[in-house]
């Protein structure tokens, strides 16, 4: 496994452990709309290394372990870090945009960055098989990607759970855009997948107010 993936997993575990045991540390570095709008922009990155609990941490790190290997092997460590942190920032930015009127809104987790890595891996290997809960059958990567985007949009519209769907969508956008920027040949080899995902993202960005209106 790539050393850079191991380093990121260790960094997430150590920061999350600190947050589990130090409430002031957790509150100081979590994503919080009011604090960010008041100039504390570092939270847009630091929140990506904190997690709510062991399950949250374990799920994200397992996904990073699985898909990080694919992306790091395909692009190398430098570009892998660009995709990872670019997706983390994109997830935070989209969350800030969606929740900008909710000063109390807060969130933690590497989900935005990890989702970007997952989408990057799918663009590289769209035929890989993945399982999307609660469907117990393996799905091709391209089906998973489209289904995950639609599910996240649905979750963000209903806001009936405690999942940061906006960060997931923002991370997916970051991973999608950066992967195509770094490997534009994908546009030619998997044109339909690129267009379908791009169409969903474009519709959300252009007509998000109407799509997400409850």
TrEMBL record:
Its EC number is 3.4.21.-. It is found in: Membrane. It is a multi-pass membrane protein. The keyword DNA repair does not apply. Keywords: Hydrolase, Membrane, Protease, Transmembrane, Transmembrane helix. GO terms for biological process: proteolysis. InterPro entries: Peptidase_S54_rhomboid_dom, Rhomboid-like_sf, Rhomboid_protease_S54. The chain crosses the membrane at residues 66-91, 103-125, 131-154, 166-186, 192-212. It is an enzyme of class 3 (hydrolase). One of its GO terms (molecular function) is peptidase activity. It holds the Pfam family Rhomboid. Residues 40-183 form the Peptidase S54 rhomboid domain. Belongs to the peptidase S54 family. This is Rhomboid family intramembrane serine protease.
């Amino acid at each position: 496994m790539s050393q850079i993936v191991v380093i990121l997993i260790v960094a997430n575990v150590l920061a999350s452990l600190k947050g589990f045991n130090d409430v002031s540390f957790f509150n100081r570095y979590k994503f919080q709309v009011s604090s960010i709008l008041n100039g504390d922009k570092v939270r847009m990155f630091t929140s990506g290394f904190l997690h709510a609990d062991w399950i949250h941490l374990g799920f994200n790190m397992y996904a990073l372990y699985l898909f990080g290997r694919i992306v790091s092997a395909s692009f190398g460590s430098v570009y892998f870090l660009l995709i990872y942190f670019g997706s983390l920032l994109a997830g935070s930015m989209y969350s800030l945009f969606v929740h900008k009127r909710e000063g109390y809104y807060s969130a933690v987790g590497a989900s935005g960055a990890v989702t970007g890595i997952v989408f990057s891996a799918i663009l590289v290997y769209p035929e890989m098989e993945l399982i999307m809960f609660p469907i117990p059958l393996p799905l091709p990567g391209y089906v998973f990607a489209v289904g995950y985007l639609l599910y996240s949009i649905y979750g963000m519209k209903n806001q009936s759970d405690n999942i940061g769907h906006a960060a997931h969508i923002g991370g997916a956008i970051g991973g999608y855009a950066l992967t195509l920027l770094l490997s534009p040949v994908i546009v030619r080899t998997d044109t339909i997948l690129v267009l379908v995902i791009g169409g969903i993202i474009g519709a959300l960005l252009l007509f998000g107010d109407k799509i997400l209106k409850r």
